[in-house]
Prior knowledge:
The protein has 160 residues and is an alpha/beta fold. The protein has a single domain (3-122), classed as NADH:ubiquinone oxidoreductase Nqo5 subunit (Beta Polymerase, domain 2, 2-Layer Sandwich), CATH 3.30.460.80. The chain has helices at residues 3-14, 37-48, 106-117; strands at 20-24, 27-31, 52-60, 68-76, 81-89, 95-97, 120-122. The strands form two sheets. The chain has a five-stranded mixed β-sheet with strand order 1-2-5-4-3. The chain has a two-stranded parallel ribbon with strand order 6-7. Strand 3 (52-60) and strand 4 (68-76) form a beta hairpin.
Amino acid sequence: xxxxxxxxxxxxxxxxxxxxxxxxxxxxxxxxxxxxxxxxxxxxxxxxxxxxxxxxxxxxxxxxxxxxxxxxxxxxxxxxxxxxxxxxxxxxxxxxxxxxxxxxxxxxxxxxxxxxxxxxxxxxxxxxxxxxxxxxxxxxxxxxxxxxxxxxxxxxxxxx
Length: 160
C-alpha cells in the first residue's frame, strides 16, 4: 500500500471526526474539536498503525478566539506516513486530554508544552516544569510574554 493510498484512506475514514481535513506538504492535517482527540488518536494508532508519537506543541494566535492551537504529530513506521492533528482551545481554560494512556512519551512532551505555552493536559498527573525551573513565572512562548521580563535569580544548589 502506497503512502498516498494510506493518506486517502485515512482522510475518508477520519473525516467524520474532523472539522476540516487538508493536505499540507504531503502531510494529512486533521483539525478537530478538543473532545474528539482521544477517539481520533486511538483510531490512528489501532487502525492506521501510527505507532510513533513525534511531538506536541502549540501556536499562540494572540487576538484570535480561541487563542491557542494545540498540534500533535504522529508517524507510522509501517506505512512511512506522517499525520498532524490540531485543535483550538480558549485562553481562560487552555486544556486538552492527555495522550499518556496511548503513548507513554506524551508524559514528557506534554510537560514541555505546558511549560512554554501553559496548555494543561487533563489526565497527565505530572506537569512539573521540565525546561524551566520551579518558580518561573509565565509561559515564555506566549506572544504576550514580555520580552524584557527578568525572572528572579535562583541560587544554585550545592552538593551535599
